[in-house]
Design goal:
mainly beta; three-stranded antiparallel β-sheet; single chain; 6 strands
């Protein structure tokens, strides 16, 4: 995973929550772009959760990203 891809996901309009997946089966959700801090070197990010916890992530260890699909409206449109 690259810092540029994370930046792209965080700046998407509209923002869609996403999960970072790791080879050991863990995953970390990103619910809002304000909950992510990017390191100046571009290898690490910090992800904060609404309960105040923080995860510092080495992007070299991220194996996959899943992006939450937008909810369909009642008329069937997004």
């Amino acid at each position: 995973m690259t810092i540029d891809k994370i930046r792209e996901l965080c700046h998407a309009e509209p923002f869609r929550p996403f999960k970072l997946h790791f080879p050991d089966g863990r995953n970390i959700g990103v619910q809002h772009p304000d909950f992510v801090a990017l390191s100046p070197v571009g290898r690490f990010i910090s992800v904060y959760q609404s309960n105040g916890s923080e995860s510092i992530i080495d992007l070299m260890l991220v194996s996959d990203v899943t992006i939450k699909m937008p909810r369909a409206r009642r008329n069937g449109k997004h």
